[in-house]
Amino acid sequence: MKIKTDYLKNIGLIMLLSFLTLSINHAQSTRSFQILDQNSKEPIIGLMFYYGEQKGVSDDNGYINLSFITGETLHLSHINYGKWAIAEVELLELFEKGKLFRKENIFNLQPISVISLKVSEDKDQKIHISDQERLHHDAGAILNLNPAVSSIRKSGAFAFDPVMRGFKYDQLNIVIDGLQSATAACPNRMDPPTSQIALNRIKQIEILKGPHALRYGIGLGGTINFIQEDPKFSVERGVYGRYSSMYESNGQIFRNEGRVGFTGENHDIGIMGSYSTGSDYVDGNGNVVPANFKRGTLGMYGDFRISNSDLLQVTINRNFARDVDFPTLAMDLRSDDTWMGSVRHTKNFSGRSLQSWTTSGFFTIVDHLMDNGMKELNPRMMNASTPANTRNMGARTEGFWQYGMGKLYVGLDFRSEAAEGTRKREFLMGPNAGRTFYDNAWQDSRINKTGAFASYHLPLGAFMLSLAGRMEINHALAQDTAEEFQNVNGVTEVTQLNPGLSVGLKRNLGESFSLGFWLARVSRSGSISERYINYFPIGVDPYEMLGNPDLNPETNNQVDLVFGYNSSRISLELNLFAAYLTDYITAEITELPQRLPTSPGVRQFVNIDQAVKTGFETSFNHLIGYGFRQQLMFAYTYGQNLFIQEALPEIAPFDLRYAIIGSHFNNKLNTALRLRHVMAQNRISEDFGETATPKFTLIDIDASYDITGFMGAKIGVQNLFDQAYYEHLNRPIGVNRVPMNAPGRNFFFMLSFKF
User: Fold this and answer.
1) Of 279, 281, 261, which Cα lies nearest the Cα of 271?
2) Do residues 336 and 190 lie in contact, with contact meaning Cβ atoms separated by under 8 Å?
């Protein structure tokens, strides 16, 4: 009996040990750790790993999830952090610590900009924001660090309106943290959405190329996502801050930016602000270009850790601009006042497939005034002014699930945008002298967008599968329709359904090579301008533009092919794309009588059957050694209107960038030599009055030095050889269409303090 009892005890002990072993194995089957930059403590995103049969990349928070394998070595690689391996014993210790810190091999040279590849499920790029970029008064100018993004410019100093792959305005989805946006109150877009984004707390900008980022809305040609910094919680209460100031010689530009924060175990609150002012600059030919501006921002933020799993974030900004010269337009910006606010709540979960749930909301209010009071007109036939305003609001809720190695995002969002404004024309001379006319520019129009979306990413052996879908209801109406508009357009209220679908497959070809293929079909409805603008000259040429509420949604059928190579010293990416567009929204000349005597006629927005855009972007990074690295990037887009067999308007020419960047004396001294070469653009749209633009080459040099741990300085010169040039997308000046040249040689000096 005792033997039987001992036997049963042994069986019970074996079963208990087996259960404990299985429990331990199960607990270890999904072990994870976070990889952080040693200096900035920021997550390292897109770090590639392979561990036995397991392969993948670190997620957006720098985490890697693994099933532990006895005796196996973990291999890691990243273009900026090199290649290394972690043996079994070190890996077990790492699981216990939960965090791994890694020092950059290719330094993020503060305050030199670094444009790095995002090697993850996507095929996109990021611009990391440095102190010099935060000083700029217009976020759109920062996007031009990447040759894939150009800007339509109507002022030499303000309103850099981005164009990517020939897509512009509402064909691009421009958001902050995937949601907040703004609508230009000015019909001529003196205040594009990017001009309203305060860079004080932006840590990086995602350039999501193509219509594939459906989580954040419909971006027919791409999405530009400005990402704010993470909270800086600390065990002990503390104060941190920075102040930067820069002077530019050409245009006497003076920029200032600062921030003070108060941090603790469960809070991170602070205030931030910036102020910039400038005057006329001189181009390479010695001619003066009007470029006066004043721009400022004041804001506050608060991040609160309500519990270990709840985070509440609140931000509010007040932007203002005064007396900004727009030499290419009939009016100048006299005032632009904007309020932007957002609130965001994130709930994290553990021990379940649902990892987090995020809900956020925002509002944006823009009050804008433009007039011709600063224009030197002789004779002055008319005084004109347009007060206008836009209102944006929205909300978004999204859940994130982790099923094994698969990631699933599902959510709902809502956005509303409204615009109103009236142009006043007071005639001083001529047959209408003494009379005043009022033109209803925006007609109190509104567009509401309600969407449902899902995105799924799953590693399949050597493959990474990406699926994204979106369904959006677009409802538009004008609440104060002008009679002249109603006479042409019988319909002023319309509801449309816009579906979107994207499929991507990326394959690792060995340790260094990868190949990705993305296919998408996405539709978008017309914007407020395209539907409701009322006889206003807002296009490439001086024709008055008339909206069309009955526009069909335009559809982009796009394919992206991405080839990548990554090693410890070299990174290369080649992105080929082709977009076939149906119901493409453009404008055609009509027989309608113009409202202004100086206008050559009237164009109305219409759909054309077919258009095509195709091109490529290339990015190459090479760690030379001895503290030096080199970088090469170039981009080209070809666009064709297949209806009239003519080039599409406002397509930037081939743009090449090359830089040699050095880091010396333990990263205290940073130097850079930069070259930019832009080819001539002879593929132009004569139907829109475009003219060919010549090629140009620019050289910039700069150097920065970390004087102390809290003080740094930078000096440099832009357009070293005082080249006289202008961008193809610059609007011309006056009825004679004189090119608006860019600044000539420009010296700058920057001083920054941190604590």
Assistant:
1) 261
2) yes
Q: Flag the least confident range among 84-98, 102-116, 300-314, 405-419.
A: 102-116
Q: Is 144 helix (H, G, I), strand (E, B) or coil?
A: coil
3-state secondary structure of 551: coil
Q: Which residues pair with residue 360 across a beta bridge?
A: 344, 396
Q: What is the CATH number of domain 2-102?
A: 2.60.40.1120
The fold adopted by the segment(s) 114-754 is: Maltoporin; Chain A (2.40.170)
Cα 355 from chain centroid? 26
Give the start-to-end residue ranges of the domains of the chain: 2-102, 114-754
Summarize pLDDT for 332-359 with one digit per residue, the tens.
Answer: 999 999 999 999 999 999 889 999 999 9
Tell me the whole-structure pTM to 2 decimals: 0.84
Q: Take residue 689 and report the two structure tokens written for it.
A: 């009055």
CA angle 332, 335, 341 (to 5 degrees): 130
| 3-class DSSP state of 392 | strand
**Are the C-beta atoms of residues 721 and 674 closer than 8 Å to each other?**
no
* Closest among 538, 441, 158, 545 to 327, alpha carbons compared: 158
Q: 347 Cβ partners below 8 Å, 6+ apart?
A: 309, 310, 356, 357, 358
CB 712 within 8 A of CB 706: yes
Q: Specify whether the CB–CB gap between 320 and 369 falls below 8 A.
A: no
Position 297, amino acid = T
